[in-house]
Amino acid sequence: MHKINQIEFEILKVWPLGERLRFFRSKMQELYGKRNYSTKALGERLNVSPQSITAIERGISKNPSYHVMQKISIEFNIPLEAFSDEYYENGFRELSIGSTGSKENAIINNSFIEEDYNEAYLGCILFKVYHDNNMRIIYSKTTENAFEILDFAKPLSRFVHEMELLDQDIKSFESKKTSPIEFSYELLRLIESKPDKYPLIKKEKLEEAIKGLNDLKGKDGER
């Protein structure tokens, strides 16, 4: 296992995604052997082409698949958010690469992750809740452009941040151990690993329900 020192942390902070991946992979090579963590060997274990890994490291692929980065983070035993700029924004934090176990145990064979929902649109429903438990939908929006799943973390973290600020004072918010971006990545991981807890529903059903509420609101306003 390699523990990142403060100098390495500051370097990672200014590096883009590809350079971070190259750095983490080089540390895994130092720990467990160059052959075990060549792009070819890593790609074979993760069911990812070596060319894809090389493209990310060289900055050719600037928005890699969430599933690919998730597999790599598991293999390196690092948090997925360590590849993001947000992870380095609040100063030095402890970060370790590799397993605390033996070299043999460190070579993780990740199971294949289905990519049925690798890309999707982002939607939002905003509503007011009154003291008598009545609710009113005041805004609903679905993006016109589709996003890679990993890109959901950034807008989600901004929304979480705003909700936290509304619900408590800034001082208590800053004292929390989990940042909004970490919470967002963790939520994405939970959705991936426990889909039954986040069931799919048909978009048409939700739109129908919202339309019904808006129609009811319109009828109430006519009386």
Structure description:
Residues 28-83 form the HTH cro/C1-type domain. Pfam families: HTH_3. This is Helix-turn-helix domain-containing protein. The chain has 223 residues and is mostly helical. It has 2 domains: 2-103, lambda repressor-like DNA-binding domains (434 Repressor (Amino-terminal Domain)), CATH 1.10.260.40; 119-222, no CATH class. It is built from 10 helices and 6 strands. The strands form 3 sheets. Strands 1-2 form a two-stranded antiparallel sheet. A two-stranded antiparallel ribbon has the order 3-6. A two-stranded antiparallel sheet has the order 4-5. Helix 3 (39-46) crosses helix 4 (50-57) and helix 7 (153-167) packs across helix 9.
What is the element layout, followed by pairings?
Layout lengths: L1 E2 L2 H9 L2 H16 L6 H8 L3 H8 L8 H11 L19 E2 L5 H4 L12 E2 L2 E7 L5 E8 L4 E2 L4 H15 L2 H5 L5 H14 L9 H20 L1
Helix pairs in contact: 3-4, 7-9
Q: What is the tally of helical segments? A: 10
Number of domains: 2
Could you say which overall geometry the principal axes of the C-alpha atoms support?
A: elongated
| Lateral strand order in the biggest sheet | 1-2
Low-confidence stretches: 101-115
Number of strands: 6
InterPro entries: Cro/C1-type_HTH, Lambda_DNA-bd_dom_sf
Pfam family, one: HTH_3
Domain HTH cro/C1-type: 28-83
Protein name: Helix-turn-helix domain-containing protein
